[in-house]
């Protein structure tokens, strides 16, 4: 392991995985645990989910959202993919001396609006101010609490199970890159930043056979699926030409040499489900405003595989192995 932290450690890829395993898990956990987006545990006979996250996105205002909206949607989605109904959020703010009060007002009002739309309450918070040059305007930390719903995932993966994504991938990554205006990239792609709890609850309430869910944020769709395959010991083959990607995102990736499978998303969910229920899953998703472009993009090809792997069948019929993001594409994405 490298001896100093680099920006790549925050990308959600291989270095992030190593950091979590070799530093945090070795210190905080006495056994190997499957890492979900939230911790789930019982309190007085009820099951609760808790998640925590920090937001350092740059720029703080971007097409389709801002750091405040992102802080709420990201926290809500981390709870929702663990089958929890989001209830409460705390918010901590680190503000740099000289930060515009008008921008802070815009950010907190955006948080309030998104929290109201998601039916969650912001119940506690904290504010710290640091000297000019000690931060980058504003950082936000959140903790989210949710109640585990009666309908939960059943991670009994079977060969032939389907992989579904709720819509186009890479939108958030390209929106952030465009907003930075560092490479002269001109595009009208908006971030997909959105709270997905209502879409996910609709699926859990109406469909049996939902195995697993994950919101593919840092590291993108590829890294999220690699983690699921390794943690739950199954292998997946994606059909590359079925993965929904906006033409503008594909064009930007072709210019910049990016693989859209590794670009961050902030309003998408990837689901593994029983193949017999895939049509119902797609129907429910496509009837929801955040799932209109949902697609089946692959299937489980083996189970009980101690070295779970992710593959992709290309448009010319060849198969390639997909690994976690290795290195750095776009720092400060969320």
- Total of helices: 8
User: Strand percentage, roughly?
Assistant: 25-35%
Main sheet properties: 7 strands, mixed
Order of helices and strands: HEEEEHEHEEEHHEHEHEHEEE
The CATH H-level superfamily of the largest domain is PurM-like C-terminal domain
**Helix- and strand-based class?**
alpha+beta
* Distance between the first and last residues' Cα: 25 Å
CATH class of the largest domain: Alpha Beta
Whole-number average pLDDT? 91
> Percent range for helical residues?
25-40%
Determine the oligomeric state from the structure.
single chain
How many structural domains in the coordinates? 2
CATH fold group of the largest domain: Phosphoribosyl-aminoimidazole Synthetase, Chain A, domain 2
Characteristic terms for this protein:
Phosphoribosyl-aminoimidazole Synthetase, Chain A, domain 2, alpha+beta, 334 residues, 8 helices, five-stranded mixed β-sheet, globular, 14 strands, 60s Ribosomal Protein L30, Chain: A, 2 domains
Question: Care to describe what's here?
Answer:
Strand 1 (39-43) and strand 2 form a beta hairpin. The protein has helices at residues 14-28, 67-80, 101-117, 171-180, 197-206, 220-232, 247-256, 278-286, and strands at 39-43, 46-55, 61-62, 65-66, 84-96, 121-130, 138-148, 162-165, 210-214, 234-239, 270-273, 295-303, 310-313, 319-322. The protein is α+β, with helices and mostly antiparallel strands. The model has no long low-confidence stretch (mean pLDDT 91). It is built from 8 helices and 14 strands. The longest helix has 17 residues, at 101-117. It folds into 2 domains: 34-148, PurM-like, N-terminal domain (60s Ribosomal Protein L30, Chain: A, 2-Layer Sandwich), CATH 3.30.1330; 162-322, PurM-like C-terminal domain (Phosphoribosyl-aminoimidazole Synthetase, Chain A, domain 2). The chain has a 7-stranded mixed sheet with strand order 9-11-8-12-10-13-14. It comes from Alkalihalophilus pseudofirmus (strain ATCC BAA-2126 / JCM 17055 / OF4) (Bacillus pseudofirmus). Pfam families: AIRS, AIRS_C. Residues 36-147 form the PurM-like N-terminal domain. Belongs to the HypE family.
